[in-house]
Amino acid sequence: MNAASRLCEIIAQGGKVSPDFYDDDRNFAAFKQHGFMREAGVLASVVCDQCSEMHSAPVVYDQLGHGYYCPELGLVELAPEQVIAYLPDLPFLIGKLADLLDCKQRKASPLRGQTWRIGAVTAASEQIMLFFHPRLQTEDDARQLQDALSRQARSRWQLVLASQGTWPMAEIATARLDEVVALDGETGALCLLVDPTTLVGAPRVSTGGRPSSYATRLKSLITARIERGEMVDGLNAEAAQLRAEFASAYPTETPPSLATVKRHVKAARTGS
Ligand SMILES: [Zn+2]
């Protein structure tokens, strides 16, 4: 199991966990080291694997320290590190996710119940609001989530990450955390696997790609030609000159097609 999936599994349990249970798990040690898990007092119970029948027993405390009663062995002492309980540090995780996605409008505490707002991501001029809810496996989970979201300003694009389950909901995209991010067990770094824009199905308006950069540059070339009084009457003639101007201004690039240039000239002339 990869680190992100292991962390999801622990979060989905929704309570304190014993490091004993994970003592041969490299990921658990990394979670403690990098801050994904924090100490949360003493375990309420432990599992006894010292006798013939594996059983759980409440942790007791006397002047000698912590231990538990086993029907076969009597009082079994526990070393201090065996009784420390751990909890997933959700504020830490939410903060890491917000950093990874460069979110605005972050919130460091739950919105309501177990619903967290990671923050807003702006992609291609669309804003996507990101949330986290530990489990989305039952109708009740979904209702709790919707209740928390209903108190928020409505965003057109909403994405909820869950550590377990994805419940289909109208106008809210859901995805499993470990399918969206990977966690490096060595460094504790998160890495994005799928873009939120893809997950919510928001339109991808290219801002850095060729089509829009053509548009911006063609517009400024057209404006310059108008200002210099160089624009010629014929649409084809004007487009050809503009295209030649583009080619000499940006010699390393393939100039836009004549049809594209004509469309921009036409738009400039009709003021659209
Ligand atoms: Zn026992």
**Beta-strand residue percentage:** 25-35%
Task: List the secondary-structure elements in sequence, H or E.
Answer: HHEEEEEEEHEEHEEHEEHHHH
> What molecules are bound to this protein?
zinc ion
Adjacency order of strands in the biggest sheet: 8-9-10-11
**Helix count from the secondary structure assignment:** 9
Give a description of the structure.
With 272 residues, the protein is α+β, with helices and mostly antiparallel strands. The chain has three domains: 3-88, no CATH class; 90-200; 210-270. The protein contains nine helices and 13 strands. A hairpin with a 2-residue loop joins β8 and β9 (126-135). It is elongated. The relative contact order is 0.10. The chain binds zinc ion (ZN). Residues 48, 50-51, 55, 70, 72-73 line the site of zinc ion (ZN).
Q: Characteristics of this structure?
A:
272 residues, 3 domains, single chain, binds zinc ion, 3-stranded antiparallel sheet
